[in-house]
Amino acid sequence: MAAMPQELQAVLDLMPDEHRETVAGRQFWPGHLGGPQHGSDGCEVVAVVSGIGKVAAATTATLLLQRFGVDGLLFTGVAGGLGEGVKVGDIVVAQRFVQHDMDASPLFPRHEVPGYGQAHFDTHPEWTHALTQASRHTLDHLPTWLSADTVAAFHLQGAKVHQGLIASGDRFVANSAESDALRLALPDALAVEMEGAAVAQVCHDFGVPFAAVRTVSDRADVGRFVADVAARYSAQVVLAALAALSRPDAA
Prior knowledge:
The protein has a domain at 72-245: Nucleoside phosphorylase domain (Rossmann fold), CATH 3.40.50. Helices cover 37% and strands 23% of the residues. It is built from 8 helices and 9 strands. Strands 4-8-7-5-9 form a 5-stranded mixed β-barrel, surrounded by 4 helices. Strands 1-2-3 form a 3-stranded antiparallel β-sheet, sandwiched between helices. Helix 3 (125-140) crosses helix 8 (222-245).
């Protein structure tokens, strides 16, 4: 899953047999990701653009689970950096999610989701570990799949992988004042986006694995950054992670 078409295109380019199905106004692409040309047998997947925001993402996640019967969900795309030392070009692998705009106080504590008794929804440990290892491998081998000009243009030298809390909300965080307010309210948050916490909650309800990886894009030329960097990050990370998870010796 990705929120925008540009974020998903590089993944679709690695699917040699995808075909489009339209459900509830969304374009789903069942097929196989990778194959012998990419050093794997190919994984059966369904790729989809979720749309932007928590409601759109939750609807798409539910369709993937109910209509297509997927065994788990991976979300990829871009996010804004919040944590200290999190910069453009870094990768953030989510260990848990929180809705930064959830506030049902005084009935419930701020950020707690009513009916759940919790504010945070964890990602799947094995899937998250696979994404982390794949992200590190991707950054370690940047020169093999990303041009020197692109690396220099976006100052990607020394890009790092971070693990931890990602905050989601139905508001585009576009200035330093909003970022500062989020840091004050959620000091552990590494990044902010608009979909992940909703998908995490859906997967919690259905009892299926969920993991997410985000490339930090704030302060970058977002349109070019998504096409030239983030989408290619996503393709490399997802391909490597699914290959690792599909090995016979995987837990």
